[in-house]
């Protein structure tokens, strides 16, 4: 029965897509790509030694996350973080961090 081979192929693809997504997300958040910098599927696929399909899927997820913007022509650019974005992020973090420590071993 070929059921097992199909299942394995799907799992492998998902892992690759997740790896590409995580790699690009980390590169954006760490400042490897500048705000407003254009990124292309072909260039990213080449740099990550993969095909364009996992890159395309990762860019779609990153767009949903608000980390890249794809215009009507399909040009993908890294978003630019403003001072207001950073202030909002740190304000939210300050609100959420005490909630995270409630279940931690240090809080007991």
Brief summary of the model shown:
The chain has 108 residues and is mainly alpha-helical.
Q: Residue-averaged pLDDT, rounded?
A: 83
As a percent range, the share of strand residues is: 5-15%
Gap from first CA to last CA: 52 Å
Number of helices: 4
Structural class: mainly alpha
Number of strand elements: 3
Write up what this structure looks like:
The protein has 108 residues and is mainly α. It has four helices and three strands. A three-stranded antiparallel sheet has the order 1-3-2. Strand 2 and strand 3 (76-78) form a beta hairpin. The protein starts with a helix and ends in an 8-residue tail after the last helix. The relative contact order is 0.11. The model is unreliable at 4-11 (pLDDT under 50).
What are the salient characteristics of this protein?
4 helices, three-stranded antiparallel beta sheet, Arc Repressor Mutant, subunit A, single chain, 108 residues, mainly alpha
């Amino acid at each position: 029965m070929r059921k097992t081979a199909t299942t394995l192929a799907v799992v492998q693809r998902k892992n690759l897509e997740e790896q590409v997504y995580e790699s690009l997300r980390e590169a954006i958040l760490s400042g490897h790509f500048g705000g407003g910098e254009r990124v292309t599927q072909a260039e990213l696929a080449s740099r990550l030694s993969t095909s364009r399909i996992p890159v395309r899927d990762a860019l779609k997820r990153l767009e949903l996350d608000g980390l890249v913007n794809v215009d009507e022509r399909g040009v993908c650019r890294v978003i630019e973080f403003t001072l207001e974005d950073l202030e909002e992020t740190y304000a939210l973090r300050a609100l959420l961090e005490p909630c995270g420590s409630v279940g931690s071993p240090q809080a007991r």
